[in-house]
Amino acid sequence: MTTSDDPRAERPAVALSIAGLDPSGGAGLVADARTFSAMGVFPMCVAATVTYQNTLGLKGRYDLPPEVVWGQLEALFEDRKPDAVKTGALGSARVVTEVARFLGDHLAGPLVVDPVLFSESGGRLFDEGAAGALRELLLPRAALLTPNVSEAAVLTGIEVWTLAEMEAAAERLLNMGAVAVLVTGGRLEEDGVTVAVDVYSDPDGTEVLRSPWLEGQSVHGTGCVLSAAITAALATGRTMKEAVASGRAFVRRAMQCAVRPGAGSPCANPNP
Q: Quick one: CATH architecture of 7-256?
């Protein structure tokens, strides 16, 4: 038994992921929980959609009824409001709407919105109305929005390939209501060297974030691990720019330590 004087009774920082279940463990709720734990933050998870996938690709998905998602959220927030929250794949417009409504009434910490619209293999993880609902209802509640270039294109309606287009997309998403935006997944050739590029934008301006390109196959789960690492850093009280820098460094290590649990794509490894 512990008491209030027992250090074991001290409550840890808590981060919540509202996302999809990837049964292969490479992305979604499993990757988020592993990332939270690796960063010393206690993980909570709410399932919004269940995917049928493995390291070879996405086979299908089942979006949970909105009342099931609401019930999970209600039970958690009744006990402990998390210090930071992230959303990932939510699947249906109805679930996006309910999540936005619940967080609008109950959110106590920063919200990181990772608009997971496609699987690593390119399969759709959203229904026809979900992107619009996310744009209108969830994006304006985001302390940080973390789309990759493909997701930024869907949300803004513009092509996003070049650095200039990434910057334009980040600024447009900022104008849609997000407090800050991190557009990821750019690739440039500079002085004969391939460079990975992300674009960060907030009311103070836009910044291009560069890092050496990691050669090899695409790594499954990097977007989930990045947004989860940023969420964990925010849960421990870091500023947004500190959290973004910490998250980018964390996901790079997870990519360098990627494992191949199946016959397909390697998976980012938050716990090397």
A: 3-Layer(aba) Sandwich (3.40)
